[in-house]
Amino acid sequence: MYMITGNDDVFALNAKTGEILWRRWSWIDQRTTSACCGWLSRGLAMGEGLLFLGQLDANVVALDIKTGKEVWRTPIEEWRSGYSITSAPLYYEGIVYSGISGGELGIRGRLTALDAKTGKILWRAYTIPSPGEIGSDSWPAESDAWMHGGGPIWNTPALDPQLGLIYFATGNAGPDYDGSVREGDNLFSASILALKAKTGEYVWHFQEVHHDIWDYDGASPVVLFDTVIDGQPRKGIAEAGKTGWVYILDRTDGKPLIGIDERPVPQEPRQKTAKTQPYPRGDATVPQCADPQPGIKTGCIFQPFWDEPVALQPSGQGGTNWSPMPYSPDTGYFYVPGSIRTSVFERFPRQYRPGQIYTRGGQEAASHTSLNGTFTAIDSTTNKIAWQHKTPYRMGGGSGSTVTAGGLLLRGDPDGNFVVLDAKTGEVLWKFQTGFGADAPPIVYEVDGEQYIAIVTGGNSIQRSATGDAVWAFSLKGKLVPSWWPPRPPSATTGPSFWWRIWGAVAPLWRPHQGAEHLNEPRGPGAQGDRGDR
Predict the structure, then answer these.
(1) Per the domain annotation, does 443 fall within a domain?
(2) How far apart are CA 34 and CA 80, in angstroms?
(3) Which of 26, 219, 320, 417 could anchor a disulfide with 413, C-beta 3.0 to 4.6 Å?
(4) Cα 167 to Cα 242: distance, rounded to the nearest angstrom
């Protein structure tokens, strides 16, 4: 068993006993400031006797799978320019594919393909087109906005060997929160993209959010599935968005399998807002309107903002963030983790400076509002809710879940519980307290004819769950007792904290270092500091 930490350290464990067989320290530069939203890694890939990882310093690294010794290292960008890698790579037929992070730092997103044996870069496919390329007419002409246009790839791609296509979802356009300098739909941000796996050639796209100004990026991995709709077998692809919807498409051509309608939305000319937005038919997994807030304007999904703060739901930290969404061919359900959070959005000016925060606005959790979540089974043939759990903590940035052929659904919760459910009904069958935030996806494996389930529990800054350092493995012969209960994640925001009062008083006394500059953003009325959610 192989695992990676947020510091990009890699461990090999005996999958039967938990014994550490080897460890590899990354020695990553601790001054790296380009990583958004916490130091983390979402996993490893393996192939040809090697382990592959992407590091926070924007290096892709190959290790010998037996010893952990480094075989090659390739920088695919410079972290000082705002780039990092937080997703797990994908290996297929001699190629390693890696996304790139940094949508809040003025980067230009791309998928990079490397030779698995040597680390040589084979090709790059940019998510933000340059002038003259497909999609470039969705950016302002005679402008360099595309050069810092965002479109990161937070997630691991999926690949269909029969079609020869690789798929992934993309992040927000840049600068985030301010569309005034990037008129147009801003392709291919906030989109699902399909490319030819061998060459990176564009095949199709579907944009989930046009001209995104709300940080509604596609952070959760896409899921490939086969289904039957109207009596016809179809090849599907789906992605759970921060909007609270699941986008269900035909993976051969990108057309919706279940209707998605373009509807008019509220306008703000100064934001150059898109006239319409895609509305999937079916059910949203989280509320899409903010409750009234005293002394502040409130709105629903796609409500624009400018110089007056507006409280919205879902926020850019709502719906499904990085958490993966599995699919069961037995039930035909997607299992969608969701977060419910009201954010106060506002816009303010900021100039681009390489390697520094390039968000021209912000969102903060609204004071005295709920921080809770949902866990929802969505029927893949209707995009409607089959069953749903309401949780007292957010789920959209945590573990996701794993579904088995035996009809079990395995889920980690930020309160530390490892939970087993009936995949068809949602009935909770068993719980086990792990002691830390259970915010990584469980895995199922077999050794010497015995089946095991394992989960890493280490907490998560997005979930604000208890941090720790543990791997739990379960079998029918297991004898360990549950751990202690950790502190539960907050279920509501409060008023501005004492820390933020101190910060507001002393911040003007010195210039913050580059990595902390986002802490000095202006904040509007009704907002409450919630910086860990970034």
Answers:
(1) yes
(2) 7
(3) 417
(4) 18
Full domain range(s) for residue 428: 398-493
Is 320 part of a structural domain of the chain? no
For 128-150, how does the pLDDT look when each residue is reduced to its tens digit (9 = 90+)? 999 999 999 999 998 999 999 99
| Residue 314, preceding peptide bond in cis (omega within 30° of 0) | yes
Q: Got the DSSP string for 162-220?
A: TTTEEEEE---BSSBT--TTS-S--TTTTEEEEEETTT--EEEEEESSTT--S-----S
Q: Which residue, 500, 505, 508, 509, is CA-closest to 529? A: 500
Residue 102 lies in a domain: no
Is there a contact between 109 and 81 (Cβ–Cβ < 8 Å)? no
Closest of 398, 368, 496 to residue 42, by C-alpha: 398
> CA nearest 323: which of 311, 338, 342?
338
The reply to whether 215 belongs to the active site is yes
Do the Cβ atoms of 434 and 470 come closer than 8 Å?
Answer: yes
Q: What is the pLDDT of residues 172-202, one digit of tens each?
A: 999 999 999 999 999 999 999 999 999 999 9
pTM reported for the whole predicted model:
0.92
Rounded Cα distance between 164 and 471, Å, is 36
Count of domains for the chain: 1
Q: Kindly state the greatest CA–CA separation across the chain.
A: 68
Residue 237 covered by a domain? no
Catalytic residue among 176, 185, 215, 439: 215
Q: Are 360 and 178 in contact (CB under 8 A)?
A: yes
